[in-house]
Amino acid sequence: MFVYNVKFNSKSIVKVSLVIISIIVVIFFLLSLYKIFNNSFKVKDSIKEPDVAYIQADNYTNILKSVYENIDTYIGQKICFSGYVFRNLDFSDNQFVLARDMIVEGSTEKLIVGFLCSHNDAKSYADGTWVEITGVISKGNYHGEIPVIKVNKIKKIDKPSDEFTYPPDATYIPTAIIY
After folding, report:
1. Which of 3, 72, 77, 172 could bond to 62 as cystine, CB 3.0-4.6 Å?
2. The domain 53-165 belongs to what CATH superfamily?
3. Cα(158)–Cα(82) distance, integer angstroms
């Protein structure tokens, strides 16, 4: 049987412990620096383009103006909005304007504003019928080049409480996408 006599020197234990703790701290520090610098050079674009843009009464004319002024930048944009069916006498059977009445400020005058829409089943919706559509903006021609909504989905709705819209406001900023 062997007997070992081990003698601990308290000064050497403290030194070894400090070295081990220092090495652990340096490793954690280097890992932290790596994570910071590795993530700081990545683009974190958290603004995701919506699949379908929903147009509300309060931003209706701002979007309408922007799309009419910059048709090419909006082609292919999917939108969903509501309004009433309005037709001119020279429209084809598959055309209608999805309209809203815009109240001109300082006046009792109302103007009809909206997008020209195209849908195969358009004639089954009478003038004045409130509908919600989902479609894609394309370029068409009606007395000049204008945006036309190719309707993918249409459903009849009740007249909303916010049936009127107002002229574009001071917050109008044209963009390439509808939010």
Report:
1. 172
2. Nucleic acid-binding proteins (2.40.50.140)
3. 10
